[in-house]
Amino acid sequence: MLALRSQIFNVLFYANLIVRMIVLTPVYFLLPRKKAYSVPRAWARSNHWLMEKIVGTTFEIEGLENIPETGCIFAPKHQSFWDTYALLPWMSDPVYILKRELTWIPLFGWYLKKQRMIAVNRGARGKVMVDVMRRTRLEMDKGRQLIIYPEGTRRPPGAEPAYRYGIARIYRDVQVPVVPIAMQPGLFWPRRSTMRYPGHFKVRILPAIQPGMDPDAFFEHLIDVLEKASDEVLLDAVERNPDLPLPPTAAKRVAELRQQTGAP
Fold this sequence. Notes:
By secondary structure, the chain is of the alpha/beta class. The chain has helices at residues 2-30, 33-36, 38-55, 82-85, 108-114, 127-140, 166-174, 215-240, 248-261; strands at residues 57-62, 72-76, 94-99, 118-120, 145-147, 178-183, 199-205. The protein has a seven-stranded mixed sheet with strand order 1-7-6-2-5-3-4. Helix 8 (215-240) packs across helix 9 (248-261). The longest helix is centred in the first third of the chain and has 29 residues, at 2-30. 29% of the residues are buried.
């Protein structure tokens, strides 16, 4: 039954994306950019509804008061496709740095371009990256929220941290607060899997790290606060959902944390 519900959700999830892009294209491209953002925001909300009603997965957000009213950088954990769209309803004007190949996808790529997402050739260096930083600063000057995954790619829950220093360079150059976000959606929407698991989990938005720190000190601090919070929400998810099948990385990390605290 769980496998069937997972497949029904997957079909409806992609149908929801495709149908909305086709039907709402005239509205989306005629509206000013900021007003057009209501389309992907509503799409994200509808995905949450589908996952709750079909799979039985729900979540709660802690720390919404930690989101600055000015431009900032969101630095969330990245474990599945879920976390690429999940927080859109709570963002006022997000911008992503993403691989340019995504902008080549018909309709989907046009939607990205409409929102002025920053496409980059991941293999590029030198002048191309200078241009990316220039465009990033231009968007941030407009008060937008830049979303950067500090580990660069999806990681399984509980895996050893593998942060990339690029976020420290952007923090140094852009001079805006960085908001770490701890969550464990990979327990319920695993990467490289079609299974979706029911349960409830927390998304924890941590206090913003203000600009002005030494980049190396900032980098160490980001890893420290984000990993501690990630361990806490991992334990919380496991305690709330005792029947949840854990990937080996998560099971290993939970055992380590319980041993450290003396918990059973």
